[in-house]
Amino acid sequence: MRIGVLTAGGDCPGLNAVIRSVVHRAVAGHDDEVIGFEDGFKGLLDGRFRPLDLDAVSGILARGGTILGSARLERARLREAAENCEELARSYGIDVLIPIGGEGTLTAAQMLSDAGMPVVGVPKTIDNDISSTDRTFGFDTAVGVATEAIDRLKTTAESHQRVMVVEVMGRHAGWIALESGMAGGAHGICLPERSFDVADLVKMVEERFARGKKFAVICVAEGAHPAEGSMDYKKGEIDQYGHERFAGIGNRLAVELEHRLGKEARPVILGHVQRGGTPTAYDRVLATRFGWHAVEAAHRGDFGMMTALRGTQVALVPLAEAVTELKRVPEDRMDEAESVF
Ligand code: F6P
């Protein structure tokens, strides 16, 4: 069998572990050939690819990013790929494509699959917002980075009697804010799933100071938004990939809190630090398992499917099921974290 693999969308710690695992299982386990397309679907359309053998993936398990490069692609070019997918598969001689990516990539994978290309998807995203899988690799690493940041910010906040507003990634789903906020013991957590009232945050900080506590840390997801009438805040515009640009809730909230509290507040935007660097052991293991199962699925002819973690088992689920809606933080998970506003 000849397998094509690509990584698309925003990168994420653990992508190289999947590539390595696919190559190991395919080459050593099945005597397959593997080629890797560069820069996601762009490489597939532009004919940029390279053979991946055991040497090519040696030493990459712990490396962040992706050795293949990643890119987002405009919808029009994705349609072009779907329209020509049988011809593309024939020209590269591939029997299956394994695209590794988030919601956008898996939607593209579904389009290609519907158009007749044999596809087995592998979900990735630090946001952990893909339906049908309990976890995506990259999330554990991002939560670890954000938690460490909250731990560190507490000591400097206390020295200066400040309010720290830590903005973490999470466009439509607040999983990183929820779990890093819980793990770091943030005093306030704001998520995209529930609009927050600034007055509640002000009250919480004032009560803390009245109890003799001299600082507060608020963890806010980049996609969180204030309740109507609670604070002036303009939503961002939509970019060429259909994603909302963020209007800087961390900065805006810090300014508002400083103004209302009469205390110093500082924004800390963690940004792409959460996506860079070496994956945690958990993410390496999950990524490796997903790669192994993707190759096995390809050999069974289970196309149009995606690997997924269900409990502790890796299962295969239809791509169509995975891309219908995002997995957002449910109410009961918010209730467990008492600091969600
Ligand atoms: O989807 C993953 C993600 O990291 C989001 O949390 C974030 O909003 C976005 O990607 C940032 O993307 P870019 O790399 O285009 O800045």
Count, helices? 12
Q: Which class of secondary structure composition applies to the elements?
A: alpha/beta
Q: How much is the average pLDDT?
A: 95
Q: What is the count of distinct domains? A: 2
Bound small molecules, deduplicated? 6-O-phosphono-beta-D-fructofuranose
**Which value, in Å, is the CA radius of gyration?**
22 Å
Largest sheet: 7 strands, mixed
| Low-pLDDT segments, ≥5 res | none
Q: At CATH's second level, what is the architecture of the largest domain?
A: 3-Layer(aba) Sandwich
Estimate percent helicity: 40-55%
Distance between the termini: 52 Å
The number of strands is: 11
Overall, the morphology is elongated
CATH class of the largest domain: Alpha Beta
| Largest sheet: spatial strand order | 3-2-1-4-5-10-11
Percent of sequence in beta strands: 15-25%
Indicate the CATH topology of the largest domain.
Rossmann fold
How would you portray this structure in words?
Its cofactor is Mg(2+). It catalyses: beta-D-fructose 6-phosphate + ATP = beta-D-fructose 1,6-bisphosphate + ADP + H(+). InterPro entries: ATP_PFK, ATP_PFK_prok-type, Phosphofructokinase_CS, Phosphofructokinase_dom, Phosphofructokinase_III, PKF_sf. The protein is α/β, with parallel strands linked by helices and 341 residues long. The protein is built from twelve helices and eleven strands. It has helices spanning 15-30, 41-46, 75-83, 85-92, 103-114, 139-160, 175-184, 198-210, 249-261, 281-300, 319-322, 331-336; strands at residues 2-7, 33-37, 49-51, 96-101, 120-123, 163-168, 188-190, 216-221, 265-269, 305-310, 313-318. Strand 4, helix 5 and strand 5 (120-123) form a beta-alpha-beta unit. It is elongated. The model has no long low-confidence stretch (mean pLDDT 95). Bound molecules: 6-O-phosphono-beta-D-fructofuranose.
